[in-house]
Design a protein that fits this description.
The chain is mainly alpha-helical and 206 residues long. Helix content is 82%, strand content 0%.
Amino acid sequence: MTRDKGLIITAKVISMIFTPFYLPLVGIVLLFTLSYMNMLPITYKMLVITIVYFLTILVPTFLIHLYRRHRGWSMLQLGHKRRRMVAYAISMICYLLCIWLMYYYNIYHFIVVIVIAALLIQVVSVLINIWWKISTHAAAIGGVVGAIMAFAELFRFNPVWWLCLAIFFSGILGTSRIILRQHTLGQVMAGFFIGVGCAFGTILYL
């Protein structure tokens, strides 16, 4: 019994750490680490990271929390299909604002396209979730895998170790979602491959 409780707590912690909101920030940090963009001035990189963190993590998380508290819902109640749509809408508006602001400041297209890919993953996930529930957590980390593959193709670097690491954490996250009974294996796999496809296609061809 204690063992099962510990497993559930671990799964909850993993789900909280690998929240879908972190996809754009992780992608941009990887881009600044693995490509020639690591030579950009630190002030420029901090500007980009601040904009992305503020509008894709801090603001949507705060607004969704505020909305949930206003309605008197628990996190579990917010997970209801119709209620979840409001959280998606708040997140997507923040992402659109982030994209606009990045273009306003003439941020490099390779950086902006990461946020566009993350937004596309959200839109596709929302549309599919109308009929069938898929894992947005898996879609987000699948987006990281897709982004690594796309940038490896664009910048001609060997992505094997980074891919292994991303796939390893994808497995841990997917297993956590199943342990928490939030998704089936099929829903996790569907979310993951949707994320991979959206990120890879958007970054490589947009």
